[in-house]
């Protein structure tokens, strides 16, 4: 089962991806796998090296007269603001993003938004201003990278470690275990933070590269479903993108 089948999106999608440990890979897999055209964008930043994952990249300025028809000629189109001095692509202006949403909905184009940053670390907890999920998002996918299991808790492995400590109770140097990840995902200031009321919440337990890690992920799936997740997806979107497992309350 691939990612689009595991997530079961209602089309055209309006999906935000947050967390850490494979967001961008998941983002572009969904865009490639979805039926019809897909736009990929961000409400935070994207690395300039990620433009090659799209069929075409456009930089859009905050222009109310923007012609969105030019973004409908490729399967996967990346749309961002201009690059910053630190070699990252900025988000489109808020008003432009809203115009994109309206146009995409009218034309049946799926919209996938990276709404969080993690500095390429496998795990993160959101700071006070994060994540930047659009209020109209219909699905929110929260990603965690299970490659962090067994690692000593600290800034080497976890983005925003002070917030992670506050949520999970771990102290620096403690081994990161599956229960601390479950607490992060279940907490209203963790994985459930800033999720719009109408959005379906999905957990992607990524980087489950061994059977032992997969089993640990399976063990916490029921608890996540009781804490508001409609689906829990377990697997490795990077290494085995077609071997995902799904848990849901049906």
Provide a short characterization of the protein structure.
The protein has 250 residues and is an alpha/beta fold.
Give an overview of the whole structure.
There is one protein chain. Helix content is 25%, strand content 26%. Strand 12 (229-236) and strand 13 (240-248) form a beta hairpin. The strands form three sheets. The chain has a nine-stranded mixed β-sheet, sandwiched between helices. The protein has a two-stranded antiparallel sheet with strand order 3-6. The protein is α/β, with parallel strands linked by helices and 250 residues long. The longest helix has 16 residues, at 211-226. It starts with a helix and ends with a strand.
Primary descriptors:
nine-stranded mixed beta sheet; alpha/beta; two-stranded antiparallel sheet; globular; 250 residues; 26% strand
**Main β-sheet, spatial strand arrangement:** 4-5-2-7-1-9-11-12-13
| Helical content (DSSP H or I, runs of 4+) | 25-40%
| Element string (H = helix, E = strand) | HEHEEEEEHEEEEHHEHEE
Give the rounded overall mean pLDDT: 95
Main β-sheet, in a few words?
9 strands, mixed
Task: Classify the secondary structure makeup into a structural class.
Answer: alpha/beta
Distance between the termini: 18 Å
Estimated share of beta-strand residues: 25-35%
Q: What low-confidence regions span 5 or more consecutive residues with pLDDT below 50?
A: none
Alpha plus pi helix count: 6
Looking at the structure, what is the overall shape?
globular
**Assembly annotation:** single chain
Q: Report the strand count.
A: 13
**Rg, Å, rounded:** 17 Å
């Amino acid at each position: 089962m691939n990612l689009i089948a595991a997530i079961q999106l209602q089309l055209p999608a309006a999906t935000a991806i947050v967390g850490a440990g494979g967001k961008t890979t998941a983002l572009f897999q969904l865009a490639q796998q979805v039926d019809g055209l897909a736009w990929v964008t961000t409400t935070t930043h994207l690395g300039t090296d990620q433009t090659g994952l799209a069929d075409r990249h456009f930089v859009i300025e905050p222009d109310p007269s923007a012609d969105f028809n030019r973004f409908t000629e490729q399967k996967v189109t990346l749309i961002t603001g201009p690059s910053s001095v630190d070699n990252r692509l900025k988000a489109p202006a808020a008003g432009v993003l809203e115009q994109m949403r309206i146009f995409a909905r009218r034309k049946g184009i799926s919209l996938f938004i990276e709404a969080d940053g993690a500095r390429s670390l496998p795990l993160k907890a959101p700071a006070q201003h994060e994540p930047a999920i659009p209020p109209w998002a219909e699905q929110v996918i929260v990603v965690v990278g299970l490659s962090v299991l067994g690692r000593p808790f600290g800034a080497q492995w976890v983005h925003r470690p002070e917030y992670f400590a506050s949520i999970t109770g771990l102290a620096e140097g403690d081994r990161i275990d599956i229960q601390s990840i479950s607490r992060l995902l279940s907490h209203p200031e963790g994985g459930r933070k800033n999720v719009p009321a109408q959005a379906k919440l999905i957990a992607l337990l990524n980087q489950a590269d061994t059977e032992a890690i997969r089993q640990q992920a399976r063990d916490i799936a029921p608890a996540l479903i009781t804490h508001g997740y409609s689906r829990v997806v377990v697997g490795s979107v990077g290494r085995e993108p077609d071997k995902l497992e799904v848990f849901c309350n049906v």
